[in-house]
């Protein structure tokens, strides 16, 4: 729309309409129409309160209620015509309401401003996304617990610096991600609880002289209470920033896991086989099966961090209360939410479908002198050597094995004795990978008994 007449919503003091460029930079309807149902829910709660408090007549509010339902069904049915000249979702809905019900539509905005209205709509939208994230995280954690349980005692190499360090169990590795996504879940729940205060009724910034009932609208919209300071209520976007920072940390976890899946599914590792459903082929190389979903999850983190940084920058210098800068909050959050949910769903699908290759994991677990620490610990425990001496002797034996192109358990007892003559054949018991992992029974350690205890604890917590 390029109508040059003054805006009917706020144009009383204007002689001319906005320049087309002004309209383009000002309008948010292109994206904030995603909050249509939240906007109408907020208006319905506000209208019901205006009737209950006697600020508006029951007759007017009944017309508003019916009219809002009509507008909602037009939006849901795709027949609603959004207008850029009407700037945003709030004014688009109100203008259409006027067309549908006439004069009472103009009374809806009593005791309210677009500043508390947009804060309310956006909070309702973000709250739904926190709830969606909670569901997605619970599902992903359940998928990881199933993977962990199936391979609680399957041995694999544990890495530091991506160099073989000590053997661990598949279940233990899966449970590390359960801990990470579990913290994400708790951040989601914390932030959702903290944000759940209603801005509605803060009006433009100072509250209102109408005898509104903020507790009533808060309750109707599922908020725990009204926000206690009207200046803060209209200028607070902490809830959006907590959403983005929670999403950022979770996306970082998803990205780390995705990176492992990319490595593990390569021909050089073969630790896992990803399902056809979550892989793609190459148009030129027939043998290829690419972990595209994992790669894209690894990349999604960039735009989610970007959204977090962008909104931090928007907010950092704003004086109280509302400034139009804050309209820049929504696209960042919408994009981050869409991509976070997609990444969570894709990871969930990959984890459910993937097969851990037990034999490859086991073969790799014993390579790279992964039980060297077990040998050093044995020298300490059985021969009473100081750990530093044991470390040195073990290093000499690793060098000897490496020189011969064999693994530690392949050395003869005589070769062992050449490094320290107290060594007996019992040492070979600790050089086996299965024994190595079974011995690490400290709390949180990799022993299958510990891993199973953690799986049980998580299942109980989530039940
Ligand atoms: N479209 C605006 C936003 O997204 C709504 C609030 C406008 N308020 C104002 N005083 N101009 O922030």
Assembly classification: single chain
Tally of individual helices: 19
Strand coverage percent: under 5%
Bound ions, cofactors and other small molecules, one mention each: arginine
Helix content: 55-70%
The gyration radius over C-alpha positions equals 31 Å
CA(first)-CA(last) distance: 54 Å
User: What is the SS-derived class?
Assistant: mainly alpha
**Spatial order of strands in the largest sheet:** 1-2
Structure description:
- The chain has 463 residues and is mostly helical.
- It is built from 19 helices and six strands.
- Strands 1-2 form a two-stranded antiparallel sheet. Strands 3-4 form a two-stranded parallel sheet.
- Strand 1 (155-160) and strand 2 form a beta hairpin.
- Helix 3 packs across helix 8, helix 6 packs parallel to helix 12 and helix 10 (238-264) runs antiparallel to helix 11 (292-315).
- The protein is elongated, with a radius of gyration of 31 Å.
- Bound molecules: arginine.
- The site of arginine has 10 residues, from helix 6.
